[in-house]
Amino acid sequence: MNYFAAVIGQMNIDFIFQGVETLPEPGEEVLASNFKICLGGGPMVIPYHLSRLGVPTRFGTFMGDDFESKMASDLLKSINYENVEVLSSEANRPVVATSVLSTKYERSFICYNSNVDESSIDPKVLSKFFKGSKVAYFPKNIEIAQELDQDGCQLILDLAWDNEMKLSDFVERLKYVTYFTPNDKEAKKLCGETDLLKCLDILGEYIATPFIKLGMNGVIAKLDGQYIRVPGLDVFNSIDPTGAGDNFLVGLIYGIYLKMSFLDSLKIANIVGGLSTEVIGCYRSELSPELVMSFFDNYPEPNQVSTSAELDTLLVRE
Q: What is the mean predicted confidence (pLDDT) over 40-64?
């Protein structure tokens, strides 16, 4: 079978405390209105939801004989997802376990992570796994990334917050990246700049079409020398923002699969990200092409932005 997208990553289990009024201060106890144990965000969200949208996707991950791995396997069965290839790992507990405290617009995490990845896997195995893919999560092996780039595969490089992150750490990888996906906080940290338009200029030295995610405010991008804001939608009944960033990537890949324009793909990304906030956790079993396109048909058009002051007036404060 030919897979359009290929993703390798750890399995995640989330212990979600939902409906918290405010995040606790040190030593403080707060109550949640709901609680759920479910598969967490990260790479697994992408193949699951892409399969719901009819996009052939391959997922490689790591599991062991530990309790968390068995729980992850059971949770996979509960959402009827079977297209998983278990890759070799020496870690005793390869699954990520995360406690999520979620308010309406914000969340905090406590995480256990053995940081297992594909860097120890035979390059021939990796090459076979990714072969024929049109879109892929950026692999840890830079030589595999070069190979995929030469084969015309579009690589997506997502990142997680790190207090020590700097753009120079990503320069070598960005040579082969089509879509780099920082949010506003990450972009400011990477670029050492508080002005988002200047951040786009800096990122544009490495990426042909840089963009920065703005949460409920959508996306700001630089295209053909112009700053373009793709607004977010305010029609979603958001109850849990967990996994919105991962689902944004689902929408982006779906737009690419449909051969949409760059800006239209960002619209789809905003839609899928927004839809994911209407359920507890990262997974929405009723996600379908019809549901997504029902929001796309009346999506407001992107608008050009000339200055940072103008952009600031367009942003809704979360």
A: 91
Query: CB count, 10 Å around CB of 264?
Result: 16
pTM beyond cutoff 0.85: yes
- The number of domains in the chain is 1
In the structure encoding, which two tokens stand for residue 31, read together?
């109550």
d(CA 175, CA 150): 12
Q: Please name the residues in contact with 285: beta carbons below 8 A apart, sequence gap of 6 or more.
A: 52, 79
The sheet that has 154-157: what strands, in order across it? 84-86, 57-61, 5-8, 135-137, 154-157, 179-180
What percentage of the chain has pLDDT greater than the value 70?
A: 99
**pLDDT for residue 303:** 92
Instruction: Give the count of beta carbons closer than 10 Å to the beta carbon of residue 254.
Output: 26
| CATH code, domain carrying 265 | 3.40.1190.20
The residue segments making up the domain with residue 83 are 5-24+33-314
State the average pLDDT over residues 24-35.
Answer: 91
Alpha carbon distance 24, 99 (integer Å): 13
Higher model confidence: residue 175 or residue 108?
Answer: 175
